[in-house]
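Key result, reporting period 2: structure in, sequence out.
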């Protein structure tokens, strides 16, 4: 495995949540416009983007014209689910705990158990097909 560090600061996690929710390439200008009220200063955004690029959590996926200049577009390089899974593994979750965690998630979210079972069965079938 490479040197990726998926440990985000609270502000980085807030930015990642915005990128996951938007699910599209965005420039720093768009991020500031869409984020509205955020916990970081406008001047801090480039620092966070650089940090997330270094952690390989985001990637530059294109360029777009912004006024008279070109701006980089960013997107998440990993899904929210991948991030949470990696955090769980770093905190000691192992393969023997996966089923128990899935059951605990269903209970925690108050999901309809029949629907959750169908989703889990679908995931298991997909894994078996790989």
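The corresponding designed sequence is given below.
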């Amino acid at each position: 495995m490479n040197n990726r560090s998926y440990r985000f600061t609270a502000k980085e996690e807030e930015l990642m949540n915005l990128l996951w929710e938007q699910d599209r390439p965005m420039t720093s200008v768009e991020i500031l416009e869409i984020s509205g009220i955020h916990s970081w200063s406008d001047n801090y955004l480039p620092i966070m983007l650089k940090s997330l690029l270094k952690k390989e959590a985001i990637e530059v996926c294109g360029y777009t014209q912004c006024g008279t200049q070109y701006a980089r577009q960013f997107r998440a390089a990993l899904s929210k689910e991948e991030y949470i899974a990696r955090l769980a593994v770093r905190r000691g979750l192992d393969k023997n705990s996966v089923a128990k965690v899935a059951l605990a998630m269903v209970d925690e979210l108050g999901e309809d158990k029949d629907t959750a079972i169908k989703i889990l069965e679908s995931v298991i079938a997909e894994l078996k097909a790989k």
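The CA atoms of residues 121 and 127 lie 10 Å apart. The mean pLDDT is 87. This case is discussed further under Risks and Mitigation.
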